[in-house]
Design a protein that fits this description.
Elements lengths: L3 E5 L3 E6 L16 H5 L21 E7 L2 H12 L4 E9 L6 E5 L2 E3 L7 E3 L2 E4 L2 E9 L3 E8 L6 H8 L23 E9 L6 E5 L4 H12 L1
Parallel strand pairs: 3-11
Antiparallel strand pairs: 1-2, 2-3, 4-10, 4-11, 5-9, 6-7, 6-8, 9-10, 11-12
């Protein structure tokens, strides 16, 4: 599982993370990480070199990585000020009542299961997820999802909370639907201001093969 570098200059890199690759080491994981793979490129905090924002282990798609301390500070500030545009493709179970909307519900640690997050959980923080329906399928709905905030498991938690968990999600939904061993969630588009030139950069990523296959099955169901 190797991350692909889709853009690189002296200050930052944009990478495409495959599903299954952990961003950085944790007590429960001691294998290869994205941090290990980019260690030769990045500066900043040696414990989490270059990491500006995260994706869950089994979420695929685009991430920006800082290659200097100054770039890290600027990009992190853009994330805090909600100036980094992050758009996802998600497939959720069932049919939503509206074509677009916002899920505005604080997210914190699930008091019954420390490996999960929950709406109004422990130490809950403000969380907002915006969505637009892209395609209504026989049993599922394909969504464009935009994050306003970036809490742990935010998209997965929010859609599970309204009764429409992401297809294939082993933690919040039903594992194995449409042949998936992970949640149908892909970081499709990423846009931000360059930390030095201030030029707006925008990147797009196609769905990986496993999600394309699951989508085909969902359409045929």
């Amino acid at each position: 599982m190797k991350a692909e570098i889709v853009y690189e200059d002296d200050w930052l890199a944009v990478v495409e993370k495959p599903a299954g690759l952990v961003v950085h080491a944790a007590p429960s994981h001691h294998g290869d990480t994205l941090v290990d793979q980019i260690a030769g490129l990045t500066g900043g905090d040696p414990g989490r070199p270059g990491i500006v924002h995260r994706l869950d282990r089994d979420t695929s798609g685009l991430m920006v990585v800082a290659l200097s301390q100054a770039a890290h500070a600027d990009l992190s500030n853009q994330v805090r000020r909600r100036q980094v545009e992050r758009e996802y493709r998600a497939l959720c179970e069932g049919h939503l009542e509206s074509r677009s909307g916002t899920i505005d519900a604080p997210v914190g640690r699930d008091p019954r299961d420390p490996t999960k997050m929950a709406v109004a959980g422990r130490s809950a923080r403000v969380a907002r997820t915006h969505f637009t329906v892209v395609e209504v399928l026989p049993q599922d709905t394909l969504l464009q999802v935009r994050l306003e905030t970036g809490r742990t498991h935010q998209i997965r938690t929010h859609f599970a909370a309204i009764g429409h968990p992401l297809v294939g999600d082993p933690r919040y939904g039903t594992k194995g639907r449409h042949g998936l061993e992970r949640q149908f969630l892909h970081s499709r588009q990423l846009a931000f201001r360059h930390p030095v030139t201030r030029v707006r950069l925008s990147f797009e990523s196609a769905l990986p093969a496993d999600l394309r296959g699951a989508l085909d099955l969902a359409r045929e169901e």
